[in-house]
Design a protein that fits this description.
The chain is an alpha/beta fold and 311 residues long. The chain has 13 helices and 12 strands. The protein is 37% helix and 17% strand.
């Protein structure tokens, strides 16, 4: 067991949190991470009010431990945020606010309900703003991560954020897959790690339309960070690009930021891109290819902790 300010704050065993990927985080995955001693976080940005109630009820039926619910707050109304807070998870996980969005009233409403706030940032200035707004934990996400990311490397942003917001606990995110990554982030000043892509290759994960085999068999060098994904879907995601796996089975035309602005959805199929971390290949120390498709979250956490002690 590794004790940090993060584990002590939430009363959990291991300094590992599941990223609240929506809709990649099933109730089974959230509960499995929590039951294994980490913090499971349910992605709810795309959930309707009725679906949210079903998901939260399912998580509570599967675990008695603390869990979180995540929202991308830029896309949410006050009413939608309050629906999550009224469900009273242990943690309200937030990310990607709009430039003019005031975080303090949101965090205050969470604290009024006894809910702790974990907020993810891509830059030091955002971390300071979130800490001043009252965040209980800051997630420093590096550009090594999958999905929507900022532009600073994980090894750079983690110590910078840890210094800037001390003594607020900081979780590291972006390209972390095993205990050696955990050990490295603890050495850089983090109080734990938040992992997303790593948990996509578990049996409890329902997936997101992309193949788990693609994660198992891809290399970090096969990923690309681009605004293409958001451009073709006309999504105004504040201050980020998307890291995805780029395959060569079809012509790849999404390598340049903004090249497909205003283009049709057919380009997505033509590019065959899949959201994934730059650490998509995790072969060392994990058997045949590392991310064994039949591994459960309860299996992963002890292995990650063990590798952390060795690292």
């Amino acid at each position: 067991m590794i004790k940090t300010s993060f584990t002590q704050l939430l009363g959990i065993q291991h300094p590992i949190a599941l990223a609240g990927m929506s809709p990649g985080t099933s109730p089974e995955l959230v509960a499995a991470v929590t039951n294994a001693g980490g913090l499971g976080i349910l992605g709810a940005t795309e959930a309707s009010p009725e679906r949210l109630r079903v998901l939260v009820t399912a998580v509570r039926a599967a675990t008695e431990g603390p869990f979180g619910v995540n929202l991308v707050v830029n896309f949410m109304s006050d009413e939608e945020i309050d629906l999550v807070l009224d469900a009273q998870p242990a943690v309200f996980s937030t990310a990607w606010p709009g430039e003019a969005q005031d975080l303090k009233p949101i965090f205050d409403r969470a604290h009024d309900r006894g809910v702790k706030v974990v907020h993810m940032v891509p830059a030091v200035a955002d971390a300071i703003k979130a800490a001043e707004a009252g965040a209980d934990v800051i997630v420093a996400q590096g550009t090594d991560g999958g999905g929507h990311i900022g532009l600073m490397g994980t090894a750079v942003i983690v110590p910078a954020v840890a210094r800037a917001v001390a003594p607020v606990p900081v979780l590291a995110a972006g390209g972390i897959a095993d205990g050696r990554g955990l050990a490295a982030m603890l050495a850089l000043g983090a109080a734990g790690v938040l992992m997303g892509t790593r948990f996509l290759a578990t049996v409890e994960c329902h997936g997101r339309g992309h193949s788990k085999d693609a994660l198992l068999n891809s290399l970090g060098s096969q990923t690309v960070a681009s605004k293409f994904y958001d451009d073709v879907l006309a999504i105004q995601w504040p201050g980020s690009v998307v890291r995805a796996i780029r395959t060569m089975r079809k012509p790849v035309i999404a390598a340049v930021n903004g090249i497909a602005s205003g283009a049709g959805l057919g380009l997505v199929a033509a590019c065959d891109v899949r959201v994934a971390s730059s650490a998509a290949s995790f072969r060392a120390g994990w058997g045949r290819v590392g991310l064994v498709p039949d591994a459960g979250a309860a299996f992963l956490l002890p292995r990650i902790i063990g590798w952390g002690r060795r690292g």
